[in-house]
Amino acid sequence: MPDCYNYPAEVECDEVGRFIVLFPDFGWGATDGATLDEARTEARDLLRELIASTMCDGDDLPAPTPAAGHQSIVVPPLLIALKAALYEAFRKAGVSQRRFARDLDIAESEVRRMLSPDHATKVATIDRALQRLGKRISMTVGDGV
């Protein structure tokens, strides 16, 4: 289970001058931008979609590999990173959604929403669920692009 959801991206300039972004850890998906800044913004959106699609497919998220010299690290939006952590911890715990709902004293539909990458779950709710699974949220703030 990854403990960080920051993934390395390959950024290359194509023959017409557009910046193409790929995430080798996922093995699929690409985006681009007319400028490097636009490509970085699009990369963050793509990373969110790669994580969300993997979750919706019920697959394991790949562990981020260390960035090679020519790669950039892309940080996903906070909520999808928290949802990914909950998704992975829940899968590892091997409990049913019904059992997890009982453990949290909430409706099973709320567990489904928490595990859905497209539902805007409150951070405090995800934190409580992660704690129940023996995990804690840790955050780092740094300079970024």
Structure, explained:
There is one protein chain. With 145 residues, the chain is an alpha+beta fold. Helix content is 44%, strand content 13%. The chain is built from 5 helices and 4 strands, in the order E-E-E-H-E-H-H-H-H. It has a 4-stranded antiparallel sheet, with helices on one face. Strand 1 (7-13) and strand 2 form a beta hairpin. Helix 1 packs parallel to helix 2. The longest helix is centred in the first third of the chain and has 22 residues, at 36-57. The radius of gyration is 17 Å and the shape is elongated. The protein starts with 6 loop residues before the first strand and ends in a 13-residue tail after the last helix. The relative contact order is 0.15.
Features:
145 residues, alpha+beta, elongated
